[in-house]
Specification:
The protein contains six helices and six strands, in the order E-H-H-E-E-E-H-E-H-H-H-E. With about 170 residues, the chain is α/β, with parallel strands linked by helices. The chain has a single domain, classed as Ribonuclease H-like superfamily/Ribonuclease H (Nucleotidyltransferase, domain 5, 2-Layer Sandwich).
Amino acid sequence: MWLYSLKEWMEYRNITIKTNRQNTEEPAIMDICTRKKEIIIVSDGSVKESQIRGTWAWSTVRRILGKLKLNGIGAVGCENITRDKLDTTEIYSYRMEAMALLDGMTVLSKLGWEGTIQWHTDSKAVIDTYKKHRRGVKASTWTKQRDKGVWEAIMKKQKEWGNRIKLHHVENHM
């Protein structure tokens, strides 16, 4: 599995984030977010090649005249299963959607974001699981949980983020 976050991409490309208006009519991304203390994020996950390869992505967006426009902060990721794994191992959309959420929470935490996040996803299952784990996990529920490793990491991030992330369900492929 590999994760390709914004910070790593920016370091690789030797790019820095501008935090003010420098010779441009449009405010810098972080200026917009800092003023509102809120970021809007959209994400999606997909499965390819009969559950042996999955991808996910998330991006910040902003509302301009009632329409959403990509902001440029985001990440993409991919997970592959090699043929030497057990036949019971598979990748499915639920896992990829959860990976997008985990990476977004991790990247924005590392960037020092202290505001709120309005997270939009088409995965009702991820939203339900996120809410369920926020209330605490019962042993009987945990034994049935898919992708325990991903959800253990998300639950750690939930403690860090508190109530600053709100998940919203959107129709498929917004």
